Amino acid sequence: TKTPVTVTVTGAAGQIGYALLFRIASGQLLGPDTPVKINMLEIPPALKAAEGTAMELNDCAFPLLDSINITDDANKGFDGANVALLVGARPRTKGMERADLLKANGGIFGPQGKAINDHAADDIRVLVVGNPANTNALIASAAAPDVPASRFTAMMRLDHNRAISQLAEKLNVPVADIKKMLVWGNHSADQYPDVSYATVAGKPAADMVDSAWLEEYFVPTVAKRGAAIIEARGASSAASAANAAIDHVYNWVNGTPENDWVTAGVASDGSYGVPEGLIYGFPCTSKGAEWEIVQGLELSEATKAGIQKNIEALESERDAVRELGLL
Ligand code: NAX
């Protein structure tokens, strides 16, 4: 049998954590042949709830679940971690300024990045889910100088999946017919969902929808979907966010399908004019090792403008974080 892979989940007692952990333990994160050790990292007031979730995980008698550790100590939580899902974050509360939000999250993602640097396995792969995800990933990466920046990623996959779902609904086609969807940039309202390269059963999606629908419905609906879910459910996206985290790591570790790509928030290498180092949503493929940014796409004027808007938003967050001394 294979040696177990250690997966650390922060914010494990939260609602995304609850939707995520059972799928990790059942084998959906890494595949049906890979046993998992789960480390749950929480803050002290949530440790008891984490224990309750661990009891339920054990009660599932998952054959692939090797063991569970619960801790509020990041050094223990990331010890030997091969995969880290950073879900726990400080949410924006009423009246909170951006600088305060970034500072509070810097206080979480800085120390966690350092603990990853010092204690995780050499092949560590990190996915940041907690918002502001792109900038939190940047903070964690900066605190982990010994870990290649390519191992710190931010979750854009929920936006990608939402975009597929909206296009499938509009065209009344199965989601499986849609390939090469893309959401550029930041996991925020600035993001730029882009069907320019998407195909539907092999034919260009751009020929099947008009620009008015794209501009007035598709882009804002995908970008503001999180708010629409809160409005309808009375709580933010949880199962769909957990699902996207599973998709992201599964494709990173096991590869992306032939003739398709996914959107992942990865450190820019300067592709498409995005300043090097920004954690940015790009079209990405994996063969099972590192994310690779798809090269050579021709950009329309609308796409260039969407990319630029996101560069500005993320640079401004990065500058604010620098001013706070977090980079
Ligand atoms: P919850 O409030 O249900 O859970 C968060 C958990 O994190 C809590 O149990 C809390 O105790 C824990 N936590 C806080 N600080 C911690 C720390 N320093 N170390 C370890 N654990 C800590 O939030 P939930 O709905 O699960 O959402 C989690 C995060 O995901 C939020 O930041 C949210 O904004 C973000 N999201 C990101 C998405 C994306 O696409 N990137 C989509 C969904 C979601 O909104």
Automatic annotation (TrEMBL):
Residues 6-145 form the Lactate/malate dehydrogenase N-terminal domain. One of its GO terms (biological process) is malate metabolic process. Residues 157-321 form the Lactate/malate dehydrogenase C-terminal domain. SUPFAM superfamilies: LDH C-terminal domain-like (SSF56327), NAD(P)-binding Rossmann-fold domains (SSF51735). Substrate binds at R92, R98, N131, R162. CDD domains: MDH_chloroplast-like. Keywords: Coiled coil, NAD, Oxidoreductase, Tricarboxylic acid cycle. It is an enzyme of class 1 (oxidoreductase). Its EC number is 1.1.1.37. NAD(+) binds at G11, A12, A13, G14, Q15, I16, G17, N105, Q112, V129, G130, N131. It catalyses: (S)-malate + NAD(+) = oxaloacetate + NADH + H(+). Residues 297-324 form a coiled coil. The active site is at H187 (proton acceptor). It holds the Pfam family Ldh_1_C. InterPro entries: L-lactate/malate_DH, Lactate/malate_DH_C, Lactate/malate_DH_N, Lactate_DH/Glyco_Ohase_4_C, Malate_DH_type2, NAD(P)-bd_dom_sf. One of its GO terms (molecular function) is L-malate dehydrogenase (NAD+) activity. Belongs to the LDH/MDH superfamily. MDH type 2 family. Catalyzes the reversible oxidation of malate to oxaloacetate. This is Malate dehydrogenase. The lineage of its organism: Bacteria, Bacillati, Actinomycetota, Actinomycetes, Actinomycetales.
